[in-house]
């Protein structure tokens, strides 16, 4: 962000939009083994997971505490309803890459990065 802010110094354009997201694609399947090793979980299809949440009618406070995704159920339903899902919308990062050497150097998310984040997040 600081590189982008610095690149704007002296720019006469009053407003600009920079998408700060990694444009390099990673297959979810390459990250799953790290998550499974850390948490011992079994992956399920997204639609199946949403269906399981929908099956909980009038959740109690305890159920919401145990499954906080229930709070965002309508959001997840919307992703299921979309053919490719709302998360499939591409963001143009060319402006950000032009303004930032760090953004230009980003590679795809790797299993080792995911493992590091899971340790840092400590949950």
- Overall pLDDT level: 88
Unreliably modeled segments: none
What structural category characterises the helix and strand content?
mainly alpha
Number of strands: 0
- The gyration radius over C-alpha positions equals 19 Å
In percent, how helical is the residue content? Answer: 40-55%
> Quaternary state, please?
single chain
The string of secondary-structure elements, in order, is HHHHHHHH
Strand % is under 5%
Principal-axis shape equals extended
User: Helical segment tally?
Assistant: 8
Largest sheet: none
Distance between the termini: 27 Å
Report on the architecture of this protein.
- By secondary structure, the chain is an all-alpha fold.
- The chain has a domain at 43-89.
- Helix content is 52%, strand content 0%.
- It contains eight helices and no strands.
- The chain is extended, with a radius of gyration of 19 Å.
Any key phrases for this structure?
123 residues; mainly alpha; 8 helices; 0% strand; extended
Question: Topology, pairings included?
Answer:
Elements: H1 2-7, H2 28-39, H3 46-54, H4 61-66, H5 73-81, H6 94-99, H7 101-105, H8 111-121
């Amino acid at each position: 962000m600081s590189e982008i802010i610095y690149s704007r110094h002296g720019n006469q354009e009053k407003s600009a939009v920079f998408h700060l997201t990694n444009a390099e694609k990673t297959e979810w399947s390459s990250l799953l083994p790290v998550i499974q090793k850390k948490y011992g979980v079994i992956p399920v299809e997204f639609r199946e997971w949403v269906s399981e949440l929908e099956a909980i009618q009038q959740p109690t406070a305890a159920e919401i505490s145990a499954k906080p995704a229930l709070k965002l159920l309508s959001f997840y339903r919307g992703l299921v309803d979309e053919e490719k899902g709302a998360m499939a919308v591409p963001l143009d990062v060319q402006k950000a890459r032009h303004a930032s050497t760090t953004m230009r150097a980003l590679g795809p998310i790797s299993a080792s990065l995911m493992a590091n984040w899971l340790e840092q997040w400590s949950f």
